[in-house]
Amino acid sequence: MNEQSAISCLKGIGEKTEKLFQKLDIYTIGDLLRHFPRGYEVYEEATPIAEIEDGKTATITGAIYGKVQVSGRANMQVTTIYVKDVTGTLRAVWFRMPFLRNTFQKGGVITLRGKVVRRKGTLLMEQPEIFYPSASYEEKLHTLQPNYNLTAGITNNAVIKAMKQAISYLDLSQDFLPEDIRFRYYLAEYNSAMQGIHFPIDKEEFYAARERLVFEEFLVFILALRQMKEKNKKSRNIFLFESIDPVNRFIQKLPYKLTGAQEKVWEEIKADLNGKHVMSRLIQGDVGSGKTIIALLSLLMAASNGYQGTLMAPTEVLAKQHFESICELLEEYQIPFCVELLTGSLTAKEKRMAYERIESGQAQIIVGTHALIQEKVNYHSLALVVTDEQHRFGVKQREKLAEKGNTPHILVMSATPIPRTLAIILYGDLDISVIDELPANRLPIKNCVVDIDYRKTAYQFMKKQIQEGRQCYVICPMIEESENLEAENVIDYAKTLQEEMGDSIAVAHLHGKMKQVEKDDIMQRFGKQEIQVLVSTTVIEVGINVPNATVMMIENAERFGLAQLHQLRGRVGRGKYQSYCIFMSASKSKETKERLSILNKSNDGFFIASEDLKLRGPGDLFGIRQSGILDFKLGDVFQDAKLLQRASEAAEYLLLEDEKLEKPNHQNLREHLQKYVQEGMLETTL
Ligand code: ADP
Ligand code: MG
Questions:
Q1: pLDDT of residue 597
Q2: Three-class SS of residue 636?
Q3: 507-510 vs 365-368, strand pairing mode
Q4: d(CA 290, CA 302)
Q5: Which of 19, 204, 626, 674 would staple 636 via disulfide (CB 3.0–4.6 Å)?
Q6: Nearest-angstrom CA–CA distance, 538 and 253
Q7: Closest CA to 634 of 197, 192, 188
Q8: How far does residue 457's CA lie from ligand 2's centre (Å)?
Q9: Which tens digits make up the pLDDT trace of 477-503?
Q10: What does pLDDT average to in each consecutive run of 10 residues of the chain (686 residues)?
Q11: What are phi and psi of 581, to 5 degrees?
Q12: Which are the contacts of 403, defined by CB distance < 8 A and separation ≥ 6?
């Protein structure tokens, strides 16, 4: 048995469980090993009862005080005990476990570990893990237990059991990090890294393991990026962009003046379009900085010169929104270009007709999702491809287009707030333009960080805004374990909120599990103000533009990364109205308050992300979510900025010494890299 073996080779994994694991993209033992924990339970020393906090996991030790009580209905019996230490007493309850009555003895010393919750004003533990007699906790003390992403039907314990076996089949020959690199950068060995990431004995072991794995993740990413750059050595620009008047007239007619930063970027693009080589440019600009209009100007430029231009968005909702706003603008300014929408959810007939119009050249501006680069699409004269919101246009796609006889200009738009030094590493193959200025008419968003007691007041406030004609978003409490639960949660929340808001206000919900047509329908109705409150998961975070929405309320704000919160906040404050962002947090902890208050102080995405990093400190990684910038499995661009830099240096060194990675000691790396590129990992990360 080795890392390539199917997981069904492991003890305890039958056909049924194997299918479940496959849902998590785990097919082989190697896949399983790379299913890294999303956090760890830390078995800390017991906390004095007087010091436990609502919403936090704690361990307490004390004597069972008074009688063990069992109450409730036959099928829902509640067992209650009181545990007392020198600082106080805490109630603990278990459901459907009446047999505990015979286990516990009055006066016995017990240790409990679990989440502390507040019910009717008092703190208690529900269903805590039991260590009785108390001494049995010693074994666990100071150990770390991994928490994995799961799917319905697979428990954390099942993954742990499988993982322990998988680790014993670790195959050192699968290590693709060359030894010279490992020595040069003092990185842990493969087997100890795997052991240390899944079952660290202490935090030190975890850090060493993580460092090594993040390093190799970055290294492969950077090497793949280099390959892409090599392949795409800038092609000659075969297009002519002579006609510019229609675009200038359009700019004149806009209801606002372009900001200085927009002007500057527009000049850069124009120069590129008429340059010797085709453009590959990244536009970085914070949320709301006005990237879309720059994209549109570029598309108009293509159309005015007799070419086709496409705008590709990461989601159908966003594609549709772009399509509609472009159509509106063109109609308003009487620009007779033909705009086409192409997404996966069109009917077969609609698609066929769209393909025809694209092939004949009748369609001049084509907006859509990845459907735009499907094989069946043949362009008449494609000269420009714009991608919105981080969806990088990967090597494969470029090759596909090249096969169709085109090497179009490429423009990538991103709101990812990363500093220039990192951007150069991460987007090495692109020129970078920055829109570092917000439109002047914007009122700064008013923020507040509040606890859940404020919820009712927040609802009242939303009602008032709605009466004034505005709209609101509510981001629902986050559930990490499963997308299904998250969906249920959104539905329940929306129901409760509807009751709260009354019949005259329309509340709707949105989550990732909904069908595309349903999502579109909701977004469309929200855009037309038929819906006043949209309760959603974070699916709403990218790109949505409804300038009439003025309130963004985020439940469980403490569970999100600040960069993500900033993106969410960017959905409001997009028009002329004063906008508000309410960060609701159930946590009473001081650090959480401090972290969230950074959002209060600044609206600058980059500042926020770097402050977040400072505050967390590089050491404190347990259970904290990643900043969500670029989709690395383990690494985080901010948190691990130094490692990223070192990996970039290592890539340089490797290629200098062995440009094609042909040496025997680089063979594993070369093969892994090939697989990485083939599987489209580069594209999904970017
Ligand atoms: P993002 O950069 O987040 O994609 P958008 O392009 O969606 O931002 O722009 C947000 C809003 O700002 C839109 O409603 C757009 O019409 C408006 N806008 C863009 N540029 C300007 C400007 N120079 N002055 C005023 N409003 C602008
Ligand atoms: Mg946008």
A1: 87
A2: coil
A3: unpaired
A4: 20
A5: 626
A6: 35
A7: 197
A8: 31
A9: 766 556 667 777 899 999 999 999 999
A10: 88 90 91 89 89 88 93 87 95 92 92 91 92 89 85 89 92 87 94 93 87 94 83 81 92 92 96 92 86 95 96 86 91 92 92 95 94 87 86 59 77 78 77 86 87 92 96 83 71 93 94 84 90 89 82 90 83 90 85 84 76 56 49 79 91 91 91 86 68
A11: -125, 125
A12: none
Residue 343 CA, chain-centre distance (Å), reads: 22
DSSP collapsed to 3 states, 236-280:
ECCCCCCCCHHHHHHHHHCCCCCCHHHHHHHHHHHHHHCCCECCE
Residue 294 beta carbon below 6 angstroms from any ligand 1 atom: no
User: What's the CA-to-centroid distance between 293 and ligand 2, angstroms?
Assistant: 9
- The reply to whether ligand 1 has any atom less than 6 angstroms from the CB of 256 is yes
Residues in the chain: 686
Cβ neighbour number for residue 325 with a 10 Å cutoff: 16
pTM over 0.70: no
Q: What per-residue confidence (pLDDT) applies to 396?
A: 62
Does the C-beta of 285 come closer than 6 Å to ligand 1?
A: yes
Nearest CA to ligand 1 atom 22: 439
Contacts of 638 (CB under 8 A, 6+ apart): 418, 563, 609, 610, 612, 613, 627, 629
Type of residue found at 503:
D
Range 141-178 burial, b when 16+ CB lie within 10 A, else e: eeebbbbbbbeeebebebbbebbebbbebbbeebbbbb
Q: Could you give the angle at the alpha carbon of 670 between the alpha carbons of 667 and 671, nearest 5°? A: 90
Q: Rounded to whole angstroms, what are the CA distances from 179 to 186, 221, 592, 653?
A: 10, 18, 41, 13
Say how far apart CA 222 and CA 669 lie, in whole Å.
13
DSSP state of 233: -
Closest by CA position to 620, among listed 591, 599, 650, 649: 591
Give the separation between CA 434 and CA 295, rounded to whole angstroms.
14
Tell me how far apart the 2 most distant CA atoms of the chain are, in Å: 90
Give the residue, out of 254, 287, 293, 413, with the most ligand 1 atoms within 8 A of its beta carbon, to mutate for a pocket test: 293
User: How many Cβ atoms from other residues are within 10 Å of residue 228's Cβ?
Assistant: 20
Strand pairing of 382-387 and 446-451? unpaired
Express each pLDDT in 173-198 by its tens digit.
888 999 999 999 999 999 999 999 99
CA distances from 496 to 166, 340, 499, 608 (A): 45, 40, 5, 33
Task: Please report the sign of the dihedral spanned by the C-alpha atoms of residue 208, residue 213, residue 214, residue 219.
Answer: positive
Tell me how far the alpha carbon of residue 88 is from its chain's centroid: 41
Ligand 1 centroid – CA 287 distance (Å): 9
User: What is the rounded CA–CA span in Å between residue 169 and residue 10?
Assistant: 10
C-alpha of 392 from chain center: 15
Q: Is the CB–ligand 1 distance for residue 290 below 6 Å?
A: yes
The 471-475 sheet, strands edge to edge? 446-451, 580-585, 549-554, 471-475, 533-536, 507-510
pLDDT at 155: 87
N-to-C CA span, the chain: 34
The predicted pLDDT at position 432 comes to 87
Which of these, 167, 198, 208, lies nearest to 39 by C-alpha position?
Answer: 198
**Residue 627 class from Cβ within 10 Å (0-12 exposed, 13-18 middle, 19+ buried)?**
buried
Does the C-beta of 259 come closer than 6 Å to ligand 1?
yes
pLDDT for 482: 60
